[in-house]
Amino acid sequence: xxxxxxxxxxxxxxxxxxxxxxxxxxxxxxxxxxxxxxxxxxxxxxxxxxxxxxxxxxxxxxxxxxxxxxxxxxxxxxxxxxxxxxxxxxxxxxxxxxxxxxxxxxxxxxxxxxxxxxxxxxxxxxxxxxxxxxxxxxxxxxxxxxxxxxxxxxxxxxxxxxxxxxxxxxxxxxxxxxxxxxxxxxxxxxxxxxxxxxxxxxxxxxxxxxxxxxxxxxxxxxxxxxxxxxxxxxxxxxxxxxxxxxxxxxxxxxxxxxx
Length: 259
Hints:
The chain is an alpha/beta fold. It is built from twelve helices and eight strands. The relative contact order is 0.17.
């Protein structure tokens, strides 16, 4: 099943897609299997697997610290994919890798695409790669069966938003705040209009990300998005062994009416 199909299947039954972000290697790579399989058991739609990087561009303090802990454990792109591959047969939902361009180039684009697919990766987010440079990796990803997801910010001009939305694969990652990741108390009042605009440019699902940290946020975004990505709150909960918070966030995505 492709990433887009997984999201559409969840939406078709009346639920909101829920995609937790986890930092691979935070707590050790040996924790990765348990975390992914537990999230899968709880009913998440897909899982965004962050690869720690020495110079992240969009991470807030929670995810940045998790990345630092993962790097201290010796985590890198190659050993994350190798670890994921060990239990790929047990994973029935799509994984979405979030990494930066340099590690992919150092790995070798063709080898990365092959190994990522074998590890269960069905989507890729590269936050430091402009759309105009995506040709560097896009052909190999498409051949392997991996969707290249585009981030769309609130501050981009309409023509830029249209271009990104039309180019995105799997889903459109709609950034809901200006700035870095991290929990927020509130959001801009015109987000519904922004999401309606995104939906007018492309038929693929639109997911909201950045700042979403409470069950109420999850439910509220369900009124105009196809799902949510929750990062910092999930990373913090995993670091503290707080599965109750994670379960409540996921539960909030399953109380939607068919839109």
